[in-house]
Design a protein that fits this description.
By secondary structure, the chain is α/β, with parallel strands linked by helices. The chain has helices spanning about 30, 35-40, 50, 110-135, 180-190, 205-210, 245-269, and strands spanning about 5-10, 15-20, 60-65, 145-150, 165-170, 195, 215-225.
Length: about 270
């Protein structure tokens, strides 16, 4: 039985949209350990489900649980995806800006708590995602796993200056066929928005783990700068964050994303 925090929408097309960071739920038993529930939710991929809703016929796998509880797009071993660069852990103890999430180190998750959270949330999410990949791979010679993300455009701890609107991640071209990468790049270029391939965000654990082009599974991560679809304030605060989802404001971004996802389907077919 699928747990209530895990959402799987099935389609028979050869495209999967993974949404690992769209959730904001903090279980009651854990919320009181955080310095601030707002801070524990701030780094979510805000309104990602609404942004992609209805753009294409695809399977969708998503979670309602906040990434501050457990980040299902991190290496479950705890190894850093970006050695030598600032990042957050499997069970984060800081925000993207480096602020402590927990009231004190004594209430932050220890090894046993991390293992428990992995069993409760990480493992079911990836069992569902792996199951959908296997189901669709049995129907199609090629399947595309498109990992949906977004992030604030200015986070000095993580990157210098302003982040491009479209950040395409293929882990140096290893997680998908160059043809798919080039189709996505061409679509982003046609939008006339700033884009980069394998820049600061080269693809998280989902992209790197499932992307096996030789086996017919092509994975690509899209990290969007939030300003591309939300009216992002200069500095987030409890009074202005998250910005509301405005369908009119998001229309240009949704048009480009529709073209990108259509290209993914064309490649897979």
């Amino acid at each position: 039985m699928t747990p209530p925090w895990l959402h799987v929408h099935r389609s028979d097309t050869p495209l999967i949209l993974a949404m690992p960071h769209g959730g904001t739920e903090l279980p009651d038993s854990l919320e009181e350990a955080f310095r601030s529930p707002w801070l524990a939710r701030r780094d979510a991929d805000w309104h990602i489900k609404a942004l992609y809703s209805g753009l294409v016929d695809a399977t969708i796998v998503g979670t309602d649980v906040s990434r501050s509880i457990i980040d299902v797009n991190r290496d479950p071993s705890g190894a850093s995806l970006y050695p030598g660069q600032a990042t957050t852990e499997l069970c984060p103890t800081t925000t993207f800006d480096g602020e402590p999430l927990y009231l004190s180190p004594t209430v932050a998750p220890d090894e046993a708590a991390i293992a428990h959270r992995r069993a409760i949330w990480f493992d079911p999410y990836h069992a569902a995602l792996a199951g959908e990949i296997a189901r669709l791979r049995a129907l199609h010679s090629r399947v595309v796993v498109y990992d949906c993300h977004s992030i604030r455009g200015h986070i000095p701890r993580l990157f210098d200056g302003e982040l491009p609107v479209f950040n395409i991640g293929t882990n140096g071209g290893t997680t998908c066929d160059p043809e798919l990468r080039d189709m996505v790049v061409q679509t982003c270029a046609a939008s006339e928005e700033w884009y980069v391939v394998d820049g600061r965000f080269r693809g998280g654990w989902t992209t790197r783990h499932y992307g096996r082009p030789d086996s017919g599974v092509h994975a690509i991560q899209m990290e969007l700068a939030i300003r591309g679809y939300l009216a992002e304030p200069p500095s987030p605060s409890p009074e202005n964050w998250p910005p509301p989802f405005d369908p009119a404001f998001a229309t240009p971004m949704r048009a480009t994303l529709s073209n990108i996802l259509t290209a993914c389907l064309e490649f897979a077919r």
